[in-house]
Amino acid sequence: MTLSVGAASTVVFATDVGARGGSERRLSNQAAPVSDGGRAQRPRIRTLYPVFGAAPGARRCGDDPDGGDGHITCQTDNRSVKYYMDSHGSRRLEKSDRKAVRNAMRSYRRTDLSVRYDRNPDFTGSSETDVVYQEGSRHVSSSKDGVTWCDDAAGVHTFKCDQQYVRIRGNGVYRRPIACHETGHAIGLVHGDNANPSISKHAKKLGCMTTPSRYPKPRRLNRRNINYGF
């Protein structure tokens, strides 16, 4: 992995080229292979890193208003991710919604994250449940299917968040691809056009982080960035 420090002391991720048996097209900003003691090294590209590796000058994580402020600037604060699906009131998840979230979270278990459901969620204190899922459209832009926001930032000098909320529309919208997509934001992944350098937000290598969400799970590129970030 390659680290690059920007104006805001941000981290730039590097990921291996060749996720499909070395057949990936080389990007224009890709560094040429280098030699290490006579041994050729695989070329690397920088792409799709989590929010704390966003473009230099990116804002630190802060407490967002209900529904967020339209910017993804936070990442869950540890690799042990506890999640809860709202079970009461107007924000509760229906059976099909819950299935979508469970399947999405199962996909993230293939990373270095430790994912488990929290049957007794904490909404205050130092050990809050990391991600809370809701159904609804309140404060969800008409152009979006869902939003992710930080309810309790871990500190003004970090990109970490102690508790994040995911709210997705109902009526058939709450499906695995969008659940996977918003979960990706909660753990720090961004859209392709928000990465630095950017790539197409429709690129298949983004898995469920494509915009709009078309794929049901993260792909190899997502998993590598997650593992490096935790």
Automatic annotation (TrEMBL):
Q: Name one GO molecular function term.
A: metallopeptidase activity
Q: Where is this region: Disordered?
A: 21-42
Question: InterPro entries annotated for this entry?
Answer: MetalloPept_cat_dom_sf
Q: What is this protein called?
A: Uncharacterized protein
- Give the source species: Solicola gregarius
